[in-house]
Amino acid sequence: MAEGSVDAYAESGLNAWDLAAGWLIVEEAGGVVVGERPDGPPGTMLTVAAGHALVEQVRTLFVPRADAAPEPD
Known about the structure:
- Helices cover about 30% and strands about 15% of the residues.
- By secondary structure, it is of the alpha+beta class.
- Strands 1-3-2 form a 3-stranded antiparallel beta sheet, sandwiched between helices.
- The radius of gyration is 13 Å and the shape is globular.
């Protein structure tokens, strides 16, 4: 991301030591890192890193919307 070769990054299962350096690099490059909730920290459930304009769009690809209709059985 900092290099400009990707627009966003998302992954689950990261530990603190897996994301610490990357988080710093993304923020220094002007990006943002979020977790499953937009106001929550990244963690093992979900980590999304992207620019401010794109991060929420990418996050919602991995987190179901609260107002979405349930899938039929």
